[in-house]
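Can't attach files on this board, so I'm pasting raw text. These are the components:
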Amino acid sequence: MRVELTEMLWFEEHAVSLSELAELTGLSPGMLEELVASGAIEPIDPASPDPLFGAAALEAARHAHRLSEDFELDTQALPLVLALLERIEGLEQQLRALRAKLPGRIR
Amino acid sequence: MKYKDYYAILGLERGASDEAIKKAYRRLARKYHPDVSKEAGAEEKFKEVAEAYQTLKDADKRSAYDQLGAHSPGQEFQPPPDWQQHWQPSGDDSFSTEGLDLSELFERMRAGRGRGSARMSMPGQDYEIAVPITIAQAYEGTEIDLDLNMPEYDAQGQLRRVPHAFKARIPRGASDGQRLRVPGKGGKGFNGGRNGDLYLNISLRPHALYRASGHDLYLDLPLAPWEAVLGTSVEVPTPGGLVRLTVPRNTQAGRHLRLPRRGLPIPKGGQGDLYAVVLIVVPSVAGEQEAALYRQLAEVSTFDPRAHFSEEGSYAS
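---
Top answer:
Structure tokens for the assembled complex are below.
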């Protein structure tokens, strides 16, 4: 078996077009457009006529694809579920940050 | 191949209605979906449920599955000879059930049914794994050995799990919740389709001393009462080695003393801070002489730590 050393790329360093995003995630361009229109997936510069998408969008789109496949969600329900999941993740992050600040080892 | 009881996995009897299958799947997906569930082993459980549903929701696959007969879960079995004749994708001479597991068998049925499309290019599968690393590894950067069984298309355009072993370099400053993408390192594409990507989700293992928040680290700094009052200078461990920290006079418990740029490195340059969280601790048993000195201190001191209790307006009305 071949063992090679692979360099990791920072997730944040990618910016892709809508069609590339569709190809990367398996979502149809039509569904992606709807998700962008609903604000569930945001381009880096919303004003640009040829919008590019960053890591957060890629993550959200992968998520959206998984959820739509596994729960048969439509473009009405998907943005809601994604927004709630994003909020939970934000809250969990805040919780972790607060926990780090609390003295942990009072004995 | 080993038998899996797709009905039992969904908690159903054989012969359950399509509606019942859908309902059972929805209930279990809600319970075990990794995006929703925090239960241990939920992801594995969900994969089983999804595999069962993929087969049973499709009328063709379901009757093919039913004709395999009922066996006990985990039992070795071979599809009956006429099964293969009946379900073998037409024109696919390479079709063999040997070495396949049950899910791959049905995956092949699907690939086979889409004849004509079999020569089309198909993108490789993305693959996502969790990578827990230590704080020391995040500080220094590290190499990890990955040993993955990735779904991949073989020469016939059929999905197969292929073992892949490689080393991956995790750069310095990978922090909790960080995602790394390795383009093209997922499953191989078929017939010119792009290769899948590999996604790594980094998490930090708990450390005995440090707690991470982003690239900042927090460390408990226990002080004796006299150290907190008189001030002192202490050696504090940091991931980069011991650092001397000046504790100012009259340091209150709960204060955060900042050691700039002693936290985790930030990938694009810079470094997080390390905060020493002050705890004031007392000996569990004070010696006679110590106790006498504290009594003396109690007599001399005019300090009232609860002065605010009696301030106007602080009573409950």
